[in-house]
Amino acid sequence: MKHFTLEDITAQKTRYKAHLINAITGYKSANLIATKSKEGITNLAVFNSIIHLGSNPPLLGFILRPTTVPRHTFENLKSTDVFTVNAITQDRIAEAHHTSAKYPEGISEFDVTAFDAEYKADFYAPFVVGAPIQIGCRYKNHYRIEENNTLLIVGEMEHLFVEEKMISEDGWVQLDKGNIVTINGLEGYALPKLLDRFSYARPKK
Amino acid sequence: MKHFTLEDITAQKTRYKAHLINAITGYKSANLIATKSKEGITNLAVFNSIIHLGSNPPLLGFILRPTTVPRHTFENLKSTDVFTVNAITQDRIAEAHHTSAKYPEGISEFDVTAFDAEYKADFYAPFVVGAPIQIGCRYKNHYRIEENNTLLIVGEMEHLFVEEKMISEDGWVQLDKGNIVTINGLEGYALPKLLDRFSYARPKK
Questions:
Q1: What CATH number is associated with residue A40?
Q2: pLDDT digit of tens for each residue in chain B (205 aa)?
Q3: Is A6 in Cβ contact with B159 (below 8 Å)?
Q4: Range(s) of the domain holding residue B84
Q5: What are the Cα distances from residue A131, in Å, to A32, A45, A114, B162, B205?
Q6: B188: in domain
Q7: All residues at 6 or more sequence positions from A203 whose CB lies less than 8 Å from its CB, including other chains
Q8: Number of folded domains in chain B?
Q9: Contact flag A180-B26 (C-beta cutoff 8 Å)
Q10: Closest CA in chain B for residue A4
Q11: Model ipTM?
């Protein structure tokens, strides 16, 4: 195995370090976050950092780097309090990845990609048409991670739309039934297939 | 599509809610965290909440529910300052899932599962033999998420071991070359295959 010490990692060039460290923690969720500014300009950006925080209340989180690309997302969700999270499917990975390009503030990614916005449930932020999971979230809080000056954004789920065929009787949502992808590092997109589902683990006798 | 409002979600039974909300944010990383108490007792537990926090310095995070199963992990990493993160592969998903069973404090999951501990690089916490990615981390900080009383633990990577065949020239680690799995919800394990890798996105002309 190749061994990197902290010193070895630190000594690498910025891009090498970013590729290496972004990949080694494992697969990441693949979602598009959509927002709309107070002035009515929509924004759409791919995120690989959305995480489950808790189910009661239903909370999710994601990491933002205040000084880089998806800043419009943060400005919009702070000023309007709402954003949506939309699952990325196999057929749309190239378009989804393209939302990470730096467009000027007045240009909506909905206009320069194949994604369409839809409005429902009286929610101010747009949902992405065709996403098999769409979550309407209200911004609750953010935490500054002192160690590298990133932000953990916390949102509460107010609306959840899921394709019926993906939902099991016990509430579990089988993601491969919706062809939902996962992200490997910064730019790799992979399609998982379910191997097995276990039950609540108990000690061996 | 099935529509759940916040009220609909809240009204569900605890397990239904947990299955539903744990799955809808997308695929999660699949890792085993290993620690060793000051008294020398090892602990091993499956985690689906490990996330990338930044590459410079190399930081990862994970979410802990202080009142549930993996508490030994937190006690050990607070008292010894170190833990390891070890990728889960396809052939070991049943054993990995079993580490979530509640064993008494004196029993090590290394003794009741097929996983073996190895020690290297003078690191106090054990690594999991055979894991294609092994990360030795130093505990840096934790943040209490007020909204549901969970903790975000922040660790810095001091040692990284990666199988050579998985590392690209530019530092990217291709996870499917190591048969590394991903987690769907609480108990579903899936195997991804790479679809495509893109480059840094730039605006269309």
A1: 2.30.110.10
A2: 999 999 999 999 999 999 999 999 999 999 999 999 999 999 999 999 999 999 999 999 999 986 665 578 888 999 999 999 999 999 999 999 999 988 887 899 999 999 999 999 999 999 999 999 999 999 999 999 999 999 999 999 999 999 999 999 999 999 999 999 999 999 999 999 999 999 888 887 6
A3: yes
A4: 28-178
A5: 9, 14, 13, 35, 27
A6: no
A7: B101, B102, B103, B112
A8: 1
A9: yes
A10: B160
A11: 0.96
